[in-house]
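Before a computer can learn anything about folding, someone has to put a protein's shape into writing. The three-dimensional part falls to structure tokens, numbers that each stand for a local backbone shape. The protein below has been through that process, and both of its lines are reproduced in full.
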Amino acid sequence: GAARAAVDLALHSLRPPKDVARLIDRIFVRFGLRPPPAGHAYQASFGHLMGPYAAGYYTYLTSLNRALDLYSRVGPAFADPAAGRDYRREILAPGGERGMDEAARAFLGREPDPRALERFLSGL
């Protein structure tokens, strides 16, 4: 996930790389992964790189981070009726009438945490 997001952002940057395969290899190594096989099969099979997603693959991780942050409010007490009412009132009911950061602040009672995914993964 994170390596694919880094590849996506790097390929859609203001200065696209001249050697895409080399860039992908470096990114994979940086994330502790084995680089994909030589050639362009990886790029050709990574369908999110082009088309309607463009440089949007990273939003999967952003969404996961936000979901884990919201979940942190309820944690094991997922069936807490008060949290469910707050979630409906602060997140679902407003829909697109207010930004997600504002809705998250109202639900969480604090600023959204940009490191929620990192904290979650470190606890595995």
Observations:
- The chain has a mean pLDDT of 82.
- The helical segments are 2-11, 20-30, 41-45, 58-74, 81-92, 100-108, 116-122.
- The chain is about 55% helix and 0% strand.
